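Lay summary. Proteins are chains of building blocks that fold into shapes, and those shapes determine what they do. In this project we predict the shape from the chain. Here is one chain we studied, written as its sequence of building blocks.
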Amino acid sequence: MKTSLVSMIKTGIIISVLIFSELAHGQSVLDYLLQAKAFSSSGRPEQSVLILTEALAKEKDSRLLLERAEAFILKGDYSGAIADYNSANDLSAQSGEFGLAKVYAVKGDASTSLYHLGMHLESVYKKSEKEIMLDPSFGKIENSPEWRQFWKGDWYNSAERNRSEIEFLTSLKKIEDSRGILTEMKRKYPDSDETLYSEALINMASGKYSEAVANVIKLTGSDPLNAKYLRLLARGQEGQLNYAGASDTYTKLIESGVADASLLLSRAQCYRKTRETDKAKRDIERFLEFYPEDKSAISMAGKVEAESGDNLKALEYFSKNLKLHPNDADCYIDRANSYFASKSWEWAADDYSMSLDLKPDNQDAWLNKGISLLSTGNIKDACHDFKRSYSLGNQKASSYLSKNCIGN
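And here is the predicted shape, written in a compact code that computers can read:
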């Protein structure tokens, strides 16, 4: 496998960021970035700009500038975005070039956009062709003569193009087509990282998790902080049911400064599997600081509380989720399951009933509603529900039917 100069440069950049990541008052660059992303994603870019301006007063960091530029774009302040992308370039050479390409594309200036896109494609931050083509920022210029002419250039070598094609094919589960391309890659580029990564993708898509993990471990040998590799490694470890290993990999991603709050939920799910309940709770609570109304996080928080024996706390979370998402069947299921576990049969039956009004094909909900009704003595309605569950394919319902519903 090649030892890539680009990989070494990338690793150096990440390490240098980590060294200077702590801000005054104990709040890290990562905390500011996560909060800013949360504000922007909830339609509050003004708040994102404010918090990033506060952070930049304490620490000059290219990531803060890049994120503030994104918030400026959401506000429609293109001048502010351009200034921040240029400032990011001053701190980390070429880090702002892709952003500049995007903002000039949004402004409809194809020539300037493509100048900066070319600079980006010659940098260590180079994105895949697929990422660029799918970016909506280039919508205004993608039918222009300049755009078509630009892509006649050799911006990607054949190994990179093959890898991109395999990424696309494996996402569609077209495994055999992917293997055909990989065979050719192995013949032409047997020692390249692109070939090894492509093989890892195919192994992952094929459910060969141990082989995928082995592929990625080889890749991380020369590029240990590559976020793309680490994400794939974590997925492979989860596929192996190696949740302790996966949580360690998610920790590396988080500690390397990847500003993605969903990593906290992924790690929390692994901690649930290894019964490290307190760690799971901390990760979920931290995620909820940024996204307090997130349905998945609130649901997970309730389930962790239930698993740790605090059913009342679990019910608080599930009831909160229902207030936020009153027409979501899964939110009713969560609370119904909690009532069911505590043998609060009438409340459980009511919530299962509400969930079935919204999603009537849930065989398990019909079964549990039937059990709840049976436990209250309502045999007739319980048998109706057992029959519905059985008709939807739930074989567990047959024993309840045979024991309780002969003649009903």
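What the prediction tells us: The CA atoms of residues 43 and 177 lie 41 Å apart.
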